[in-house]
Amino acid sequence: MWGEGRLRWVVVHRMMQRLTQRGGVMPHSKERTNNVSTNGKMTQDDAWRYLLAGHPFEATNPMTTDAQELVSYMTPLVSAKTWVVAQLGQSLDGRIATQSGHSHYINGQASLVHLHRLRALADAVVIGAGTADADNPQLTVRHVSGRHPTRVVLDPRGRVPMDRQLFQGNEATTLHLVGPQASLPAPSGSVERCVLPLDSRGQFAPRDVLALLEAHQLHRILVEGGGITVSQFIEAGVVDRLHLLVAPLLIGSGRPGLQMTPIETLDSALRPALRTFRCGDDTLFDVLLRPAAFGG
User: Fold this and answer.
1) Per-position pLDDT tens, the chain of length 296
2) Are the C-beta atoms of residues 158 and 180 closer than 8 Å to each other?
3) Pick from 132, 170, 146: which is nearest to 45 by CA?
4) Is the pTM of this model over 0.70?
């Protein structure tokens, strides 16, 4: 005889199988399923598939601690139709890379999975030209179930080489945002080039970027990096939530994470509400910058 907890898990599991067959959840061949159901409880992977399908959780759902935490910090993003979330991974002393630019990998595997879950919930993922050039990322969803977001490259001067994966791969559409003076060859079929005006510093205004994405019907925006791009969006007051992943290491020197305009006194400092969660060996700071975006 199955206990009540085991029976409830089986019912949810079968619901998820039906949703997958109907296209409600996109399975991914490379999804990591390290979590194993224990005593009939939903694991973090089980909870993620349920979240991705857009179904609310009942208080009676038996879950592991990791699954409960995932539901706690991801449910606001699943419930809201429009948001801007910034994500940044750093060391204990606030570094996102060494002085030479080496950053693979400051955060652990669990943080990488977390990042891919954020991508899967987002309509678009935004990075700056420096990150696109130096890291040559794919910005796809590879470690979890979910759909690939639209990739957005902020490249005011058109300096990112066209041989980068973002411009070559056909896994997802890429929006290449450039300034009026950028002179570049025609993009490939999966790349759409958009021209935006520059501010006095030669950068895009974050609100202009978001307006363009809204015009493309992209409503859930993940600002993934690097530190300068994340800082610009936070300082513009357009970021609803910051997911800051802190690894248990000290780099001692190197490239800082957030780089905001200097303030004179602590009275001017931001003091947002936040919660902390475990993320493997790292710590996730779920920072609420604009409560109104989530009904607060």
Assistant:
1) 344 444 344 334 444 444 333 333 333 334 443 444 556 888 999 999 989 987 666 656 789 999 999 999 999 999 999 999 999 999 999 999 887 777 777 999 999 999 999 999 999 999 999 999 989 999 999 999 999 999 999 999 999 999 999 998 788 999 999 999 998 988 888 999 999 999 999 999 999 999 999 999 999 999 998 999 999 999 999 999 999 999 999 999 889 999 999 999 999 999 999 999 999 999 999 999 998 888 76
2) no
3) 146
4) yes
**Amino acid in the structure at residue 193:** R
HEC profile of 21-66: HCCCCCCCCCCCCCCCCECCEECHHHHHHHHHCCCCCCCCCCECHH
Nearest to 217 by CA among 169, 168, 149: 149
- Report CA-CA distances (Å) from 100 to 104, 199, 248: 12, 29, 20
The whole-angstrom separation of Cα 202 and Cα 31 is 40
